[in-house]
Amino acid sequence: MNIEYIEDFIKVAEYQSLNHASKLLNISTPALSKRIKRVEEYFEVDLFYRTSRGIFLTEYGELVLSKVKIIKSDIDELKAETSKNGDATVRVGLLPSFSLYKWTEQKEALIHQRLSIKIESNTQILLDHLH
Questions:
Q1: Residues 122, 123, 127, 130: is their CA dihedral positive or negative?
Q2: CB 3.0–4.6 Å: which of 4, 23, 47, 129 could bond 61 by disulfide?
Q3: Against a cut of 0.70, is the pTM above it?
Q4: What is d(CA 120, CA 127) in angstroms, rounded to the nearest whole number?
C-alpha cells in the first residue's frame, strides 16, 4: 500500500465524503475512490459503507483509522527529523496584480510547518532559483 493512501483514507474518514476529500487532496473523485479500494484490499475488509448521505466508517474502519493516524504522525515526525535542512522555502511566482490577502490564510499553516514564503513577481528571479 502506498503511504500517500494513508492520508487519503484519513481525509475521506474525516469529511465523510469522497467529493470533498478529493477536492482537498487535489485528485479526481474516481482516482480517490480507487485509492480507498486499494486500502480496503490491503486490509482485506470493507472500511467504509456508502450511502446516499455520504461514506461512513465500519467498525474495522474505525480501528484502522485510529492506528493509521498514529502511523501517519510518526512518519511525519520521522520525515521532519531526517530532513537535511529543518526549514524549507516555498517560492511562488505571482502576477503583480494578484491579491496577496489570499496568502494570509495559508501563511500561518506554512509557518507552522517551518516553511517560509518568498513571493517573486519577476519571472527571471523565480527561474534563477528553480535552476
A1: positive
A2: 47
A3: no
A4: 10
- DSSP lists the bridge partners of residue 91 as 118
57 membership: H or E segment, kind and range: strand 54-57
Q: Which three cell numbers stand for residue 63?
A: 480501528
Cβ atoms of 121 and 95 closer than 8 Å: yes
Q: Compute the distance between CA of residue 90 and CA of residue 52 in angstroms, rounded to an integer.
A: 40
Residue 115 in grid coordinates = 516553511
Q: Cα-flanking dihedrals φ and ψ of residue 85, to 5°?
A: -120, 115
C-alpha 84/C-alpha 82 separation (Å) is 6
pLDDT-derived band at 4, boundaries 50, 70, 90? confident
pLDDT tens digits, one per residue of 92-121? 665 555 555 555 555 566 555 655 555 555
First-to-final CA distance of the chain: 34
For residue 58, give the H/E element and its range.
Answer: none
